[in-house]
Amino acid sequence: MTLATRKVSFLPFLLLIFCTINPSNSATDTFVYGGCSQLKFISGSPYEYNVNTILTSLVNSAMFNSYNSFTAPASGSDSQDTVYGLFQCRGDLSNGDCARCVAKAASQLGTLCLESIGGGLQLEGCFVKYDNTTFLGVEDKTVVVRRCGPLISTSSDSLARRDAVLGYLGASDGTYKPFRIGGSGDVQGLAQFVGDLSPSECQDCLSEAIGRLKTDCTAAKWGDMYLAKCYARY
Ligand SMILES: *[C@@H]1O[C@H](CO)[C@@H](O)[C@H](O)[C@H]1NC(C)=O
């Protein structure tokens, strides 16, 4: 069973926890989704040491990068205890905000996914994930969170602007842009990939997210579509 399939069932529980504990955090820290593997590791085991190493490496790296991945032990041998991890900050965050977000996510993961073999957490400003399977560089278009706002008139100008913004976000000009932002009138949109994907995989993931925003949210005033390795919102 993969991590992604478990996320959904955990969601109501997690939302409740984070709304209760952190009612007044800045937008960057706002909880979007999280999930943990049901399998647990043994406290004090080499695996636990490697999980802690990964989370520490991610937090330290986020002071200087908006994306990075790590393997512990670094040799990446096929050991039972190997842990893989990555973080991705939203592309418009400063280094300081990225580091704060990843630190927050890593610490929340430690509590939320206590002794879980794998865990993932998406805050508004950053995504952090670790697991014992190699998810690094693997495209994954599983829908994790889909939220659609109230419907507006299909003849509305806003809808035309929405389609224009999504078209802009989904257009590939051949350059590698993990973060895209665009707006038209009152409609703002943004899209973000996880930096371990190749440019063509990123484009493919984003096309899927944007296509689903249009088909699933139809004429909604706003929409959020989080796939496992990319998201698009307007
Ligand atoms: C991940 O951990 C689980 C539980 O210990 C184990 O069954 C599985 O084989 C591990 N996967 C890898 C790739 O090591």
Automatic annotation (TrEMBL):
Q: Which family does it belong to?
A: Belongs to the cysteine-rich repeat secretory protein family. Plasmodesmata-located proteins (PDLD) subfamily.
Query: Which ranges carry the Gnk2-homologous domain?
Result: 29-135, 140-234
Summarize the subunit comment. (Microbial infection) Interacts with Grapevine fanleaf virus (GFLV) 2B-MP.
Entries under PANTHER family matching the protein: ANTIFUNGAL PROTEIN GINKBILOBIN-2-LIKE, PLASMODESMATA-LOCATED PROTEIN 6
Protein's name in the database: Cysteine-rich repeat secretory protein 12
* Membrane topology term: Single-pass type I membrane protein
Could you tell me which species this protein originates from?
A: Hibiscus syriacus (Rose of Sharon)
Q: What are the annotated GO cellular component locations?
A: plasma membrane; plasmodesma
